[in-house]
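pasting SpoVT-AbrB domain-containing protein for the record, 89 residues
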Amino acid sequence: MTEPKVHVLRVGSRGRVTLPPAVRERLGAKEGDWLTITREGDGSFWLKFPTAEAEAGAEVKRKVFELFGTIDPEDMLTAEEMRAQRQRP
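structre below
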């Protein structure tokens, strides 16, 4: 059986979506993995796993939080994220 190219997901009451098993298996996704959602200029969105560089940046965020505790890692940006923001119109 061929895997569909489009999957329809329902947003739960807390804003969560569940990736279908076929998608998780194909991506090798497991609990605790990070995903990025990128909005394109045409309004479309891309869902992807971060690169090894971005994963390393996320690890740095966690370590800074452990050291300083007052900075929420979700509020910090990696160098890659800051560059991407500067390039947006």
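The chain has a mean pLDDT of 77.
The first helix runs from residue 21 to 27.
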